[in-house]
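To whoever is on call:

I kicked off a structure prediction for a single chain this morning and the downstream step that reads the tokens threw a length-mismatch warning. I double-checked the sequence; it's 145 residues and nothing unusual in it as far as I can see. Pasting both halves so you can look.
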Amino acid sequence: MPAKASTKGMKAKASYEVKKWKEETYQQISSSMKMTRASVEFALHGDLAGIAAVEYVMFYKSFDPNDQHKSSASYVSLMRFDGKVSGKSGSFAMQDQGSYEAGAAKSTLKIIEGSGTGELKAIRGNATYLADQKGATFELDYWLG
């Protein structure tokens, strides 16, 4: 589906899937509370098509090793997207802040101004993503100039 113009700029949507997830605990606080780091790679399909490389730092308020959907966490990350946004090629970086509750990850992101390359050199804007039992979606509100 093509990107749509709006008074806020352009909007791009994509679905995504996890291609790599490597998570390590760096501080075990209690049997159910911990801090972790994760190196992750997502493949995006749709108006955004490409790879997003992410470095997460997570704080688990509660962690259930028998059922991760019962875990609760807050996280921050830096994400770098490399690919195409509505047919324009390049890359850019974003700051990510989110939470994981009841089996759903929800995030808000901000493009780091000046991080764009190629046809996305002047990109700026914000994004959200949601991953739950229904799937994983990514939405970007952006300006190119």
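Update from on-call: the warning came from a stale cache, not from the record. Cleared it. Sanity check on the structure: The chain has a mean pLDDT of 93.
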